[in-house]
Amino acid sequence: MSSRRDATPVELCLNKVKERQQQLDELPLTDHYISTQQCLQELRNGSNTFLEVTQKVEEIKKSRGHTHNKEFDNLETELLLTEDLNQQKKRCLETVLFVSEIENLLQNVESDIEARALYLSQRPLVFDSVYRGEDVPAQSKIHKDCVSAIRKSWSWIQTVNECLGIHIENAANYHQFYHDVRHLEENMLSFLLWMDSSTVRAQVKTQDPNVMLKHFRLIIKQLLDYQGQLDLLTERSRDIHPVHYRKELPEWPLKARALVQYQHKHVSLAKGDFVMILENSDAER
């Protein structure tokens, strides 16, 4: 009975590479701040461990010199694929973390709101005064006005929070739209490079019309698919809010709609009113 052959160094490395590919595939893309941090740390730990495999492949490559075979070439291909998958996963998790960090900011705001409520509930009486006969009506009015103003102030904070939800939705749609635009652009550029490659431009040696027909159908199908995606993006663009104008206005006046009723000494707006924004650098105005 023949004994089982021991795996070669190339086979051992290839097995490790395949294991790493499976780990990357199974590593989830979460949407929470803490879980995303944990996934990133897990990715880093796996990358550090996988570095030993990369170094081992380099050692095998040096020992072989210029003598390569199909097995080693396959290992190098899989290794490059794994490194690319690792980089893509890392970039994606970092992007998710950049978004989910907003959760941490909102939690800090929540803690501050609760701290203010606790402080105000334990604060000494604002209207701790000696009531004299003729002063009682005036002091009572001030007290009632103050209670009403504080209630309205908390109500206004809730209104601002509702506006924040709208701004978050607009920002998310803005980012997703431009992400999809960039993704389509890269796909189209790759397709055009393939169309201009020597493989596609080479003289066709077949006389079979079905082969030619299949080739043209493939190209037309891909172009029609791009046209469909472009039409969808064009339709979506009508609902995308120009978030970048919040940071820097264009040279022309910008039309905007009031999300809530707003009023102070210089401005009075009803919900849904349209205004022309000329300048927005001063938050106090």
UniProtKB/TrEMBL annotation:
Superkingdom as given in the UniProt entry: Eukaryota
InterPro entries according to UniProt: Desmoplakin_SH3
Keywords associated with the record: Phosphoprotein, Repeat
Repeat keyword on record: yes
One Pfam family recorded for the sequence: SH3_10
Domain Desmoplakin SH3: from-to ranges: 242-284
Name this polypeptide is given: Desmoplakin-like
Protein's organism: Biomphalaria glabrata
